[in-house]
Amino acid sequence: MSEASFHALGPDAVLDAIEAAGLRPTGHCSVLRALENRVFDVRLEDGRHVVVKFYRPGRWSREAILEEHRFLLDLRDAEIPVCAPLAFDGETLLDAGGIHYALWDRVGGREPEELGEETLEILGRLMARIHNVGALREAPHRIRLDAETGLLEPLDFLLDEGFLPDAYADRYADVVEALAEILVQRGTDVPLHRIHGDCHLGNLLHGEQGWFFLDFDDFVVGPAVHDVWVLVPGRDAAARRQREHLVDAYRQFRNFESGWLDMVEPLRATRILKISSWIALRWKETAFRSTFPHFGTDLYWEQETQALEELLDEVCGAD
What we know:
alpha+beta, two-stranded antiparallel sheet
């Protein structure tokens, strides 16, 4: 299935896919904001709502998507509050004209605006339980988050595709390579296992049923501390105290070495590279150009380079 067919998905195709799964939609279908996949909210005749996600062709292999579903099912079976995909005749991954799709029950709730101490304790314990389950099974088709995949590969892509202007290319490359060396050093002997991978506040919901962790589309095999810092991303003293508070609660269910927190700043660099390389990869699409209008400008690359240099200075200063 071509990218054009994927982007052209409309209500008729969505409703046909819902009916093909054996459900009865009312015809009410609304688009949910998503840049990478196509996601829709569909109301059923029995009053329920389901969320259907059509996976962008070529992004993940079928095996990698099934590993996402397997992780979610493992977590659900362990009574951890996640949204697991619905199964139809035992299958969670369906096909609509060559496009993979899956369905979830819609979960109500709100994204948290801030994290107080009690909330941090709850989320720390839940995160530890997620990681306990994550460590029980391999995921060979998912990305292994390390210096190579998180920093050097996206750097090579940006350089090879000509996204980095000559005025910044050497400076940008030098700081990324230096941070990659530090990540290798600080990641030595740190265990890697299945983690959420994109555990920011926007992927949490709190409602009548409590907390839910959403959207494991980007789950990786990586260090536990990556989920910790993405959930509490600040760099000031207050944020560091929050991370420590979350980690204290985490330790009630799973070991967390204090030294793993030394990986936060080089891991922060992987997120900077991930976002830039992701936008670059999709830059031909109108939605990306309108969402990130300043991408690729000299000002953009100056700010990105400075941010990485500040990370390196902080890491070296701490040493």
